[in-house]
Amino acid sequence: MTKTVSISITVEIAGERKDVIHEEIHPDQIGENLKKVTDQVFTSAGTGVITYLDEYIMQHEAKGLKVLGTESRAFTTIAGKLSFRRRVYRSKEGKRIKPVDELLGLERYARRDKKLQEMNSALAGRSNYRETAAISTMITQKYISPASISRDVKRVGIRLAESDKNFYTEEKGTVRTNVLYGESDGIFVRLQKDKEGKKAAEIRAAITYTGKKWLSGNRKKLMNKMTLTAMDVSSLQWQEMVRNHVYANYDLSSVKLLAVGGDGGSWVGSTFNLCGVRHIERVLDPFHIKRAIRSAFSNALELTPVYDALFHHGFSAVADTLKPLTKRGKPSIRSARLNCLRYLENHQDEILPLSERHLPFDQLCSLGCMESNIGKAIALRMKTRGCSWSRSGAQAMSAILCHLPDLVDHSFHYSDFKKLNDITISSRRSRQPLPQPHIHMASFPIVSAGKASVPFYSLFKGIINGSELP
């Protein structure tokens, strides 16, 4: 015998009784029946709250403003869709305003609230727009198109990107460490219908961490990792972004050594120049070293002994072996070998790993995590699926991928900021509590480049870093 259970729910808002919901629950349809009850409660409570807010604003907040009428609006949340009517006012400046929309945080023409937009953006970072639209439709029971997912991604991603670019805080970070590791690199993604006629755009990425934690086998996890991406920024803006985020995450007064890794590019090597750490050790990415040697000399000699000698004794241990090979073979082969040799020679002070530099620190980690991080975080979503992006879409998606864990947890806090046009670079720099180690960038660019082959490199470096002089 089938029994039914009666449910009665009374909805009260601000002490006033609004609706009474009655429903019969059948045991063999308990899921569907309870879903119907929750939908009714959500609709009754949601519209009741919005109506109460509209009445409160009219009585207390909008005195003296002319009411132009009421307009209907609907928007979807994670719990479902809400439809309501609210008053439209004329402000003292003569503009049409809708206080309820502002109070609810609803953007103009937006059909989904910010939390649902964040959810859709996080799903789009893991999948494509079509699959995200199907999943979001199943969750909310309201149809959403892939084009709407694209608009949500741009709304959320642009907010994240602007928040990262203009981030600033007076409060220093709380993570203390003697050694801070920082790596940076760039990745090019294909563009579609670009106004400037460019076929690709570069996304800059940087990571910082305090060490590595063993998980299993060869798998390790970066501890206290911070990830940052940006697009269409100058090198100085990029350095300031990194400086501000590093300062907010780590207690730089406790950092005695900043280990910087990269591929030797100009902006890559200068990414952490403004962080205010006196002792900086630059390490050339082993991945790029091995790739350069392998592409140029793989057919001429055994590479394992070359790697061992290079990473234990430096460039001088392999120079005599590689130089004679630059005069052999076809012109294209000789050119590739000469370029590789110059690459190693120009960065010879950055080749040795930290463990071979006799630094007064225990348990120094190896660098070279940037390639795997940028591959898993950005390339896997933006390059390996045959996608081409609009410039705004690429900027938005890269910011979403950078903050994906925060979006999943709904824990990202958007910073209040002024636009870059309202704040000059010089004024922002003068406000920073950190010392500015950028004075040498104009007078001694060879030092920031780290090329020891340039004449007078050691002399200029000694003048700037007085503690290193004998």
Q: Could you please describe the fold and organization of this structure?
A:
The chain is of the alpha+beta class. The protein has helices at 30-61, 99-104, 114-126, 129-140, 146-165, 235-249, 266-269, 286-297, 303-313, 316-322, 331-346, 370-382, 391-402, 404-408, 425-431, 440-443, 445-449, 457-464, and strands at 5-13, 16-25, 66-77, 80-90, 96-97, 179-190, 200-209, 211-216, 219-223, 226-231, 257-262, 280-284. The model is unreliable at 417-454 (pLDDT under 50). Strands 10-7-6-11-12 form a 5-stranded mixed β-sheet, sandwiched between helices. A 3-stranded antiparallel β-sheet has the order 3-4-5, with helices on both faces. Strands 1-2 form a two-stranded antiparallel ribbon. Strand 4 (80-90) and strand 5 form a beta hairpin. It has 18 helices and 12 strands. It starts with a strand and ends in a 6-residue tail after the last helix. Among the domains are: 5-104, no CATH class; 179-406, no CATH class.
How are the SSEs ordered, and which strands pair?
Layout: E1 5-13, E2 16-25, H1 30-61, E3 66-77, E4 80-90, E5 96-97, H2 99-104, H3 114-126, H4 129-140, H5 146-165, E6 179-190, E7 200-209, E8 211-216, E9 219-223, E10 226-231, H6 235-249, E11 257-262, H7 266-269, E12 280-284, H8 286-297, H9 303-313, H10 316-322, H11 331-346, H12 370-382, H13 391-402, H14 404-408, H15 425-431, H16 440-443, H17 445-449, H18 457-464
Parallel strand pairs: 6-11, 11-12
Antiparallel strand pairs: 1-2, 3-4, 4-5, 6-7, 7-10, 8-9
Helix pairs in contact: 3-4, 3-5, 4-5, 5-13, 8-11
